[in-house]
Amino acid sequence: MGHVEELVYAETDDGFLHAGVVIHPPDRAPAANAIVWVHGAGANFYLRPYILLARELAAHGVTSILGNNRGHDFGFFVGFEGHRPVYAGQGWEYFEHAPRDIRAWTDFAERQGFGQVVLLGHSLGATKALYAQAQHGDERVRGLVLASAPARLQKQSTLPAVLMRAQRMVRAGRGQDLLPWASLPGGGTLSAYTYLNRAQAHLDCFGLDRGEPLVRHITCPMLAFYGTNEEFMGTAHDLEYMQRNATNAPSVALRMVDGADHTYTGHEREVAGMIAQWIKLLPEPSAEGSG
Asked: Of 92, 101, 234, 291, which residue has the fewest beta carbons closer than 10 angstroms?
């Protein structure tokens, strides 16, 4: 069928300009299905696995809107506040900005003629998408896809020794400084403030550690899946836990992609087909939400 790719921009309500790409079938009509993507930590809209998957989705008649959020790449220079340089990116993002970034791309989708969209978050982007939808309940979102959500992120975000170090750094006015390399599971690092910010945001969205998981506030259909070769992110057991706690979602579909890694390398066609088929089964957009 082929596809068309267009570079685009979306601006948040606080003046942050994000770049992105729209990948759609050549004959896209306003009534076609569209996905607003939320990329993972340190990723970006042009990450090759995302582009490959979006191209496969276009073959199913689905438009993908892939846009950066403030957590793209490890770090980038934003500007100055007075004489102080300001950075963003994975190492310096504030989690509470995620809903603003997502809303900017959903607004963009609406301007393109999509009254309702599917919101798809990958990796930490799945947590951001869930957080935004649970907090704000955007009625334009007709379905939520959690692709390889970091189900146990909260446990990793509150390591006592690292938490204490981050608190000391923030108290000393060094919140923008990076924690020592290899402080985090997997060998990475974050700024002290970002580490604290994630811990304070209660990113355990699925109820592994606290009594009122955010997933309980989702009121649209959900699809959640993992590859079988990414146990460090989640397993079939974690999917069942999500489903149990998503008590207000009208439906929750669970999938495991056999042999797939965290970015579904070599399984793009299979994953795209799975997502497209799930979208086809969603209730039709209401007249009020169809723009």
From this structure: 291
